[in-house]
Design brief:
Shape: globular
Number of strands: 7
Oligomer: single chain
Radius of gyration: 18 Å
Number of domains: 1
Largest sheet: 7 strands, antiparallel
Number of helices: 12
Strand order of the largest sheet: 1-5-4-3-2-6-7
Helix content: 40-55%
Length: 260
Amino acid sequence: MPSTLANILQIGLDGPCLTTDFARAVHNASDSIRASPVFAMESFQFTDPNDPLSKHTSGKIVHQFIMVTVHVRDVAGEWAWTYFRVDFDNNPPPHGRQNVALSDDHEDLRGYWSRGLARIAGVDQPGENGPSLDDIASLLEIMHRRTPGGYDALSRDCLWLTENLLLSTARKYSQHWLAGHCKPEPLRRYTEGNSDVVACIMQLVFHDPISQTVAGTAVRAVRGMQAFFTQAAPNRIEPHDEEIRLILEEWQPCVKAGFM
């Protein structure tokens, strides 16, 4: 389906575009477009049983992606809801791509084989208290800069991208989401500052407490070893909570959301 935002930015009209190209187009847009309020951000799993990643891991590991809802003024001056999806995969190998796909149809863009994991939304809240489209564009640039080595299935992959986009946005505008919509409960606890990254993500992905504990222990151990052995490398891998801290430190929004 056509995208109001793609039409305005003149990018992503014929398929996904790079996150860096999308961010550049947003920064170069008019002030009203840059200030367009971001209403919601959601994380999803791609659950198609025929997907190669799912087949190779017996469904234990599946692709994840982010959906963003934006309230934007179209070319006729009318306000419209539009959406974009952010993916990170290993195609083309070996470095992969961070992509943005745009559409005015949420369900079509999300796809049939998808399962929602978490959602933050400014329900019944002033749009100016949340992020602007320009803010999210800046966050996408930060994420790209933090992957100088490209896609890495053991550290910087689709799960890495989705958790850092969602959790950084949740913490940056915590009061906005907590007063609006912030679910499920593990995400709310994290947004309140009452949980760490690994605990939150494991509870979002796994419903069984035993699986949460086993997977969480393994994830902490692997990331801890990676952080230790790469501490002197330019492409250093950080512990989960330190990664979020560094992203938030670098992320300095400069365009206030609002309806112009």
